Amino acid sequence: MIETTSDHVIRVSGLTKTYPGSSRPAVDHLNLEVIRGRIFGLLGPNGAGKTTTISILCTLLRPDSGRVEVLGQAVLEKAREIRRSIGLVPQEIALYPTLTIRENLSYFARVLGVEKKRITERIGACLDLVGLAEVAGRRIDRCSGGMKRRANLAVGILHEPQILLLDEPTVGIDAQSRNLILEQLRELNRQGMTLLYTTHYMREAEDICDEIAIIDVGKVVALGTPGQLIESNETCENLEDLFLALTGKALRE
Question: Please, how many CA atoms are within 13 Å of residue 129, restricted to the half-sphere of its CB?
Fold first, then answer.
């Protein structure tokens, strides 16, 4: 684990990334700072650059330019160390479908470097946290969408990361599963974990996030607490109104 006393656990300065064959950057000179212990929302329409930014933060994708620091370390220089200190809950379910929930957690605990003597303890704690202890022997391909999402979250926190990156962790699930996931994310945050969170559910972001950046075409178009952002536009009653005012109502791919 990386030890740092800085209040800022993520610093992004001038981040730019253009994919081959694209006519414009996916991320265009993006600047962000995330303070330790916060739940930071990264919101934007499809194609705004959210997933690209998360992929760079967790060292899965190299930026074209700019500086990105996680826990005070540059992602291009200290990728291995950073990976040990962050967790990722991707948008797609990243589990083996023919293995049980418990077998998936056991496998990923080893991949993530959890101490052998603590694997059983960590699996039990994570299963309890996401409400899957009673069904841990069920194969993933026989689980509901909500159960898969909760198992995805359990994998992301097995190694007790300092920062958890979540890319739309509640998409396509029932209200009960969404409520449980949000409650457990709040609990992880209360325990000291910093969360960077993307979602298309504006009410969800308004309820859970301490601070929000709205991005579009790879750039920040608004930054502040949910209350500050809503108050910044007199015609907007909630975060969704503001989001549409800033990014437009035209359909995105």
Answer: 26
